[in-house]
Amino acid sequence: MYLMQVYIASDHGGFELKDKIKKMLLEMDITPIDCGAETLDPEDDYPDFAIALGQKFKQDNFEGAKGILICRSGVGMAIVANKIKGIYAALCSTREQAIKAREHNNANVLCLDADFIDDNIHLDIVKTFLETEFGGWNSRHGRRVTKIIEFERDHLND
User: Which residues partner with 112 through β-bridges?
Assistant: First the structure.
């Protein structure tokens, strides 16, 4: 059922949650590609890990892949990830947001907070994000996502 690459990264704030998500992914027969942090370092910086995930994602020709980024609020990771051409990151705190992020926006990176939501809810959000398909290029959502892609192509550098 899950034939995809899943990249995952966190700073110190999301380090423990990242390990829980990796364990769940392995139980789902998905081998996550860990882009850091490798050790718990309270002085590390979230941009380093969002950039590492984005670069690895692009290097591996990310068609169909998904990413998961975790920091204390999820906001910093989302800001950085969305600076990387071809990455469409969504901060989700509910299953419903994860569904809309995939169905309506074709988000390919899920950003999570480590501070505000119970870990079991996070695990459910991750599973939902990975299971939900984009609504399709011929839908109104496809038309909207195409506009974003065209703007990115015409106005942003690699």
Answer: 70
Confidence of residue 62 (pLDDT cuts 50, 70, 90): low
Burial status of residue 142 (CB atoms within 10 A of its CB: 0-12, 13-18, 19 or more): middle
Counting the structural domains of the chain, the total is 1
Domain that holds residue 63: 6-155
Which of the four pLDDT bands, split at 50, 70 and 90, describes residue 61?
confident
Q: Is residue 1 part of a domain?
A: no
At residue 148, does pLDDT exceed 50?
yes
* Annotated catalytic residue, options 12, 35, 92, 104: 104
Residue 141 among the catalytic residues? no
pTM greater than 0.70: yes
Contacts of 22 (CB under 8 A, 6+ apart): 8, 32, 34
| Catalytic hit among 35, 71, 92, 111 | 71
CATH number for the domain that contains residue 40: 3.40.1400.10
pLDDT in tens, 17-39: 999 999 999 999 999 999 999 99
Catalytic (active site) residue 71: yes
